[in-house]
Write a structure and sequence with these properties.
Elements (H helix, E strand, L loop, with lengths): L1 H21 L2 H18 L10 H6 L7 H4 L7 H22 L1 H28 L14 H14 L4 E2 L8 E2 L3
Antiparallel strand pairs: 1-2
Helix pairs in contact: 2-5, 5-6, 5-7, 6-7
Length: 174
């Protein structure tokens, strides 16, 4: 019935408005990007953006765009969805403590550095005789999230963190 549809539409728009008001701007757009990347990656486009040294080396043109896009798209929808949810928690705290530009630079540098390191290490392994290394691919937002978690733990004083499967608070620094 039209009344039920209007109630659902109002509840969803109210939740999105509340999220937009309570979440810092860069965190909001990074979470949106990770969620869209999870959906797009789930329908098969992640294959065209993942970072494999064999794709970059063996292609007719060097496909360096993969260094930037492989972090956005994920193979599995649930992995991308959980990455977006985790990114919200980590990035919102870092953005309020350190600022928007600082968080943007951290995300950009972590993503590019991780991908360049992956490309170089797999290429070196290939040159050393490990022929399967050239086909090892990377994609998804998790490496950047783990880097941000490390940076966030450095900035936290004597705080604790709750993890989904653990019953109690875990100290950030030991």
């Amino acid at each position: 019935s039209p009344g039920v549809w209007q109630q659902v539409k109002g509840a969803v728009s109210g939740a999105l408005d509340s999220y937009a008001v309570n979440t810092p701007v860069l965190t909001r757009y990074v979470v949106y990007t990770a969620a869209v990347g999870a959906v797009i990656g789930a329908i098969g486009i992640a294959y065209y953006t993942m970072l494999c040294p064999s794709f970059i080396i063996a292609s007719s043109g060097l496909q360096f765009y993969r260094l930037f896009l492989s972090n956005i798209f994920d193979y599995h929808f649930l992995s991308g969805l959980f990455a977006a949810l985790t990114m919200h928690q980590v990035a919102s705290l870092l953005e309020t403590k350190r600022g928007t530009i600082h968080l943007f630079h951290m995300i950009l540098l972590l993503g590019i550095t991780i991908n360049v390191f992956h490309f170089m290490s797999m290429s070196i392994l290939y040159l050393c005789g490990v022929t399967q290394a050239i086909d090892r691919c990377t994609s998804g937002f998790w490496p950047v999230i783990f880097g941000l978690l490390t940076i966030e733990s450095h900035y936290m004083e004597n705080e604790t963190r709750r993890i989904i499967c653990c019953p109690g608070d875990i100290p950030v620094k030991i």
